[in-house]
Amino acid sequence: MISLYHLDRDKLTRTIMDGALDGLPLDTIWIDLFQPTHDEETAIERLLGISVPTHDEMQEIETSSRLYIEEGAIVMTLSVLYKPHTSGFSTAAVTFIISGNRLLTVRYADPLSFGQFTQKAFKHPALVSSGNQAFVGILEQISDNLADVLEGATADLEALSQTIFTTDTDRKAAMPSYRDAIYRIGHVGDLSTKAKGCLLNLTRLLLFFAGQSDVHREVKERMKILMQDASSIDEHARFLSAKVGFLMDATMGLINLEQNNIIKMFSVAAVIFLPPTLIASIYGMNFKVMPELSWGHGYFFALILMVLSTAIPLWLFWRKKWL
Q1: Measuring CA to CA, which residue among 45, 40, 6 is closest to residue 25?
Q2: How far apart are CA 48 and CA 298, in angstroms?
Q3: Looking at residue 284, what is its pLDDT?
Q4: Tens-place pLDDT, residues 119-172
Q5: Mind listing the domains of the chain with CATH numbers?
Q6: Tens digits of per-residue pLDDT, 13-60?
Q7: Which of 25, 140, 252, 279 is a good FRET partner for 151, with 20 to 30 A between their CA atoms?
């Protein structure tokens, strides 16, 4: 699908092209290719005189394949978080191509940033007064969303931390199981790792674009602020990764404590029931001569002996505070 954004009397207008594309409106600022077909890519290449990278080429991770200048156009590919608020979150590659005064975006996913920026642009058309302005505006929205995602992940991790480092009764009431805690910690850890990868790509892209000689001074100032924001977000992501590691270690330590308590109870039970079992085994032996067999109180004597052999170890464990 091809979406054309152009200014008409200082008002942003969107035109969706479903059929053949023979030309572009004169004031076209932004061309958005969403899941384009081969014919749509060919039409854009013919109209703009540039090469549009394929889906496979957008997945390459080499810097030279993501940031380059070809046929006078600046081509930049960025990894963006996709569906970060769901369990199936991932990253999606988005290519930005600046050709003259126009911005061309190529994407095969629909990150939240694009919809949010489009809504802002309709309300404030000055955000898309040029292709460079639209480009930086989208990057600012992507950066804001990354910050919001990490803030939400931090809040979730803090709530989980308070649950873990509390009394046993409160922890069992608030946290269904340690397995759920590990899943939640792992989810935040994976999210922070992907966010750091996106921030790394964003920083490289900003440095590459800021190094172009034909970038307007106002755009460079906005990109300078954006790089500062990316740096602060990256520091927060590092803190979040360290917090994830700490909570994972703490959770595993609590699991080990629970397992040790269980093993301790089994050990105590084995020690407690060992003497009575020994006494019962002795009096269960089938020897012809056993003095207590003919004793009238032998049965009660054996029972009392087994009770005492159980009570004495229990008293010793309690006194030494092993229970």
Answers
A1: 6
A2: 106
A3: 77
A4: 888 888 777 778 888 888 888 888 888 888 888 888 888 888 877 777 666 555
A5: 2-257 (3.30.460.20), 258-319 (1.20.58.340)
A6: 777 776 666 777 778 888 888 888 888 888 887 877 888 888 888 888
A7: 252
Mean pLDDT of 266-274: 78
Tell me phi and psi for residue 212, to 5 degrees.
Answer: -75, 135
In the sheet with 102-107, reading across from the earlier edge strand, the strands are 12-17, 2-7, 28-34, 102-107, 90-99, 73-82, 67-70
Under 8 Å between Cβ of 145 and 117: no
CB 292 within 8 A of CB 301: yes
Bridge partners of residue 74, in order along the sequence: 69, 98
Residue 168 to residue 182: CA distance in whole angstroms: 17
Reference 30, options 80, 99, 77; nearest CA is 99
| Residue recorded with tokens 């958005």 | 32
Quick check: 103 and 134 in contact, CB under 8 A? yes
pTM across the whole model? 0.73
Q: Is 9 left (phi over 0), alpha (psi -120 to 50) or beta?
A: left
- Backbone φ and ψ of 18, nearest 5°: -100, -30
Whole-angstrom distance, CA of residue 225 vs CA of residue 273: 72
Length of the chain: 323
Q: Is residue 218 within 8 Å of 116, Cβ to Cβ?
A: no
- Identify the three-state secondary structure at position 285: coil
The residue assigned the tokens 């873990």 is: 164
Are the beta carbons of 154 and 240 closer than 8 angstroms? yes
- Please answer whether residues 195 and 237 qualify as being in contact, where contact means their C-beta atoms are separated by less than 8 angstroms: yes
Q: Which two tokens stand for residue 81?
A: 């978080």
- Mark out the alpha helices in 37-96 (DSSP H runs): 38-48, 55-58, 63-66
